[in-house]
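Deliverable D5.2: sample structural annotation.
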Amino acid sequence: MGESRFKEALLKKKGFVYTFELVPGRGSRGKTQDDILRMAEKAAASGLIHAVSITDNPGGHPALSPDVIGLEISRLGIDPIIHFTCKDKNRNQIESILYSLDRIGLFNLLVMTGDFPLYGFQGKSKPVFDLDSVQLLHLIDQMNLGLEIDGKAPGGGIRLPPTHFLKGCTVSPFKKLEPEVMVQYCKLYKKVKTGADFVITQVGFDVRKFDEAYRFMRLNALRIPVLGNVYIPNQSVAKAMNRGRVPGCVVTDGLYRIIEEETKAPDRGRKARLDRAAKLVAVLKGIGYDGAHLGGPDLTYEDVQWVIEKSKEFSPTWEGYVREFSFPQPEGFYLFEKDRGTGLNTDVPVSLRGHPHKALGYMLMRFFHHLAFTPEAALYKPARWFYRKIEDSWLDGPFTELEYWLKFVSSRCRRCGDCTLLEVAFLCPQSQCPKYLFNGQCGGSFEGWCEVFPGKRRCIYVRAYQRLKSYGEEASLKEGYTPPRDWALDQLSSWANYFLGRDHHGSKQLGKDSS
């Protein structure tokens, strides 16, 4: 099995890497599908682009599966990168599809949580999110090593042949608020430690943010290649991004005014957009990025080729274009102090703003946790004894019901039986996060609001950061790995499962207290 050109260029640092994003349409055939195949065919013939990425139901709408058209594209002679999201598939189907991709030779993946599902057949689709992106990266990493089947499962106790995936991930540095910025980087840290092989940024046009993400990775020894997203929006797409309608993508008012003015030109601003993209590619290369991920509506292959070739002309003087990408969000947070000379950042972290007040509810939850829910707690051993005694007795049901209502009032409990309140500052990701994320924020939040409920519900990871920061513990969000929910425990007592060592905390508790 030969190594792909994309993988070789990326991991062996063989020059600056170029990828381009293709967006399949809805339906098995049609102009959209024909156009992206023609684009891929031209890219394969030129050899200028290392790989084309294929989106997975972007915006939460149904579209042709990326693996199907990815196989067609691979036969044209260019590497596809399959966007692989968690939103529509449970973990069994995820594993099945991954083995199918490995079988047909589609090894390059961009692993993401995915946009919240929206319009489908006769209404909105049910979101799945059985795994989050960190858990999915962990699964693929284990598959690459040769997944060991649980001995209790049919055919268990064996190790499967290893897969051969190259695993990419994403990060959204273009956030306004400190909690959003910090939880994005905490999750990026987790993704890399869990096995990500490369990273692509989300869409934005603030060069200090591009530099910030690269600098964070370097200072935290996250030594994987990083590609900057160079998106080329037309006016209508820029308007949607400006109004926060495209999750994770940021076009500020200042940039939108420029794009709006450019559309008055005879070419409707096309030359100006391409020129800006070429300059951004040059700046990314100058900062130290390993490649550029290009995309945008209505682009021809000739447009992409022009951007790449023009960027090479701009590269020797890239510092001069940095200030052309100074589009900060009003009162936006940056992780590092600004370098007044270059317009980028220094390696000096900013002084983080204040300490939030300690909320009474959070204080009480912490108190009860330290009273009974750590192996060293005064009530821990009595609680274990109690739940052993009432297991399968007539008291089991009433105490499970009592627990549920206490936790419903405090945390809107969903009776998952495998409680993760502790991992998210006593906020329940099963009831308070529409994507049920256990290991960090998705990329879709906007100014602290949840992607699915903008202006109505704060992102739970923004809230968790504030709670933890009030105790100086915000760095804990980048530590550890929370496994996916065990559905065998659904509707059971999470306290009983915790104290009897049946939930995801079990091995830790039992290891510390064998009584």
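Annotation notes: The longest helix spans residues 270-287. The chain has two domains: 5-349, 360-512.
The annotation will be released with the project's public dataset once the embargo ends.
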